[in-house]
Amino acid sequence: MGILSIPVYLITPFFAWLVAGCAKFGFNCIRERRLAFDLIGYGGMPSNHSAIVGSMASLVAFKEGLNTPFFGVAVTLVFIVVLDAASLRKQIGRHAERINQMSVNHSAKALRERVGHSPLEIAAGLLVGALVGWLFSHLS
Predict the structure, then answer these.
(1) Are 114 and 137 contacting, i.e. CB atoms less than 8 angstroms apart?
(2) What is the rounded distance in angstroms from the CA atom of residue 114 to the CA atom of residue 120?
């Protein structure tokens, strides 16, 4: 069973997540000058969530076309995820930062403050997703 026998609409977002996650780990290791396993998770360059939804939107665009209801649904999902990453999750990070500053009990584990994304991180995730979507549209 080869990679092309797995349904393309199933494997594409997984592969985009994998590529973006590996790239993010690499960027974090370079920036921190160490193996940054503790920074795996939300936030950082590129956005995994943007890569996942971007891969599906681009795959649908390349395989089905731009003037289809499928592409409309995919783009709607992209907007929801991007707005969430840029605004709601950014606010959650700010709240975590304040809670950590106010915490009296320093023995408790601090809340993760980096959960949102900058516009550049989101754009990089969308670019990774678009490239993966293009690749898989041509492989299937």
Answers:
(1) no
(2) 15
Cα separation of 94 and 22, whole Å?
Answer: 26
Tens of pLDDT along the chain (140 residues)? Answer: 455 567 999 999 999 999 999 999 999 999 889 998 887 777 789 999 999 999 999 999 999 999 999 999 999 999 999 998 888 777 877 887 888 787 766 667 777 777 778 899 999 999 999 999 999 999 88
- Is the distance from CB of 56 to CB of 12 less than 8 angstroms? yes
CA dist 110 and 12 (Å) reads 35
In the chain, the amino acid numbered 40 is I
Please report which helix (H) or strand (E) contains residue 31, including its range: helix 8-32
Domain layout of the chain by residue ranges: 7-139
43 phi-psi bin (left φ>0, alpha ψ -120 to 50, beta other): left
CB atoms near residue 96 (< 10 Å) = 16
Q: What is the pTM of this model?
A: 0.84
Q: From CA 6, how far away is CA 62, in angstroms rounded?
A: 18
